[in-house]
Amino acid sequence: FFWLSLNVWLFWKTFLLYYQGLQYYYLHQMLGLGLCVSRASASVLNLNCCLVLLPMCRVLLAFLRGSQKVASRKTRRLLDKSKTFHVTCGVTICIFSVLHVAAHLVNALNFSENYNEDFLSLNAANYRGEDPRKLLFATVPGLTGVIMVLVLFLMCTASTYAIRVSNYDIFWYTHNLFFVFYMLLMLHVSGGVLKYQTNLEEHPPGCFNPNKTLRQNMTVPKVFEEPFPDYTTEPFPEDLPVPEPFVQNNFMRICSEEPKFQSHFPETWFWISGPLCLYCVERLYRYIRSNKPVTITSVISHPSNVLEVRMMKDNFKARPGQYVILHCPRVSALESHPFTLTMCPTDTKATFGVHLKVVGDWTERFRDLLLLHSNQDTEILPIFQQRRYPKLYVDGPFGSPFEESLNYEVSLCVAGGIGVTPFASVLNTLLDGWQCYKLRRLYFIWVCREIESFRWFADLLCMLHNKLWQENRPDYINIQLYLSQTDGIQKIIGEKYQALNSRLLIGRPRWKLLFDEIAKCNRRKTIGVFCCGPNKISKILHKLSNNSNSYGTRFEYNKESFS
Questions:
Q1: 422: which residues sit within 8 A by CB, 6+ positions away?
Q2: What are the two backbone dihedrals, phi and then psi, of residue 554, each rounded to the nearest 5 degrees?
Q3: What are phi and psi of 378, to 5 degrees?
Q4: Which domains does the chain have, with CATH numbers?
Q5: Residues 401, 561: contact at Cβ < 8 Å?
Q6: With bands split at pLDDT 50, 70 and 90, how would you rate the model's confidence at 81?
Q7: Nearest in space to 417 (alpha carbons), one of 382, 457, 383
Q8: Paired residues of 248 in beta bridges
Q9: Model confidence pLDDT, tens digit, residues 134-166
């Protein structure tokens, strides 16, 4: 809402600026309000086209999050809104593009109907009554504008939730048309339609042109019968009546030559060149960093269509909660997808891994390639079979809100189904050693529909539970597992999972009671709330985090959002 209000304010201020200028110059007779609306909307488009790329600079965001440049936690949490800001800028571009196009349609009609022979250089039309369609399809600004509208329409429609869920490929390929859009935008503003006057001293706007007046057989006061000086600002004699059209601020200004106009330098280049260059440099850096394929050490097929891939890469470092982007050319030449790290490399082991849910075309093809030479889906393929794996490239790591989970004294982590992956890397890190982190109590809530889904990380949870018991810190982690749908099976199969079976509950969490209990046990503390799961759960947790309580406990909400 704030960003929308800011854009409306910018539109209005620019509109007033050009409206006042039109009354002072000559274009008001030719274009009217169409120019004001088109220029005001263009200013908003310049701002948003400049900023829409910055949230997509993942390396920059990861650097700011992980460096000491942003020491404030509140400021770092603003970086988590990068995707939301990107979407907001995109929607703003769509809205004001419609306004911009409508204004230029009116401008094209006005240029044709109000052709003025007195100011030939200002006319976009070649003659009065010229077909406005020629201005739209036979000029560089018009043709590039039409193509940009088509590109923007494809990007906008393909970005809807329905298309992204049903066919992500369409979203991916159409969204990469942004580069075409920016190239057309730079050509669009180089047409030189908008011009400014270069000889204001010799021809002040509103000045009196005697030669032109005499040619039009207008009545001239006797004081002008003598030859005119080149330029004067002397006031009229007090006893001489002055014709009203020639009065300006109680004195007359006479122009010495005809007005001259020149095209503006495209201001849009100043707006978009910086962010566009920054984005291109970052993409080049990411390409160089990820151009060497990783070494896949093992592939594990888990229940409920979940695949675990473990790999190694030279000089790869990551923090718990970060994510990477996987690209497999044999699956898709251009398409790549983000996956949260479930295992981070440490000083003692270089292996890192991801868990991916097989739910779409890309993941299905990727699974088939990895398990092609495996007779049993559950088999861990040994490293000597590495030559059979397809080439896999890893781009990243990139930052996410879950990096902050270790920076709170108390954290509440809520996962829904495969949304447990961000917390798996946190749990693995705590298994290696928890004393060096600020975190002193972790509430871990995991909700699944199927009992077998808990086996994805059941071994990890049991090992961490046993480790904390051995170190006499059983209260460090509070594990609650919820089975939302049951067919009578209420235990995780296996004797080694007894510690988890006692924490397995049937049904859904009672979130209000859960928050009250956590607030009561942690009075006057700030608790980080982290959620990765369905939007329904996310909205509930967000609402409860914003509610006040009688214990002085404050909840800070964080949500996973791939940018």
A1: 321, 323, 340, 400, 402, 415, 530, 532, 560
A2: -115, 130
A3: -85, 0
A4: 1-139+191-197+262-281 (no CATH), 292-371+389-398 (2.40.30.10), 402-560 (3.40.50.80)
A5: yes
A6: confident
A7: 457
A8: 251
A9: 777 777 788 888 899 999 999 999 988 888 877
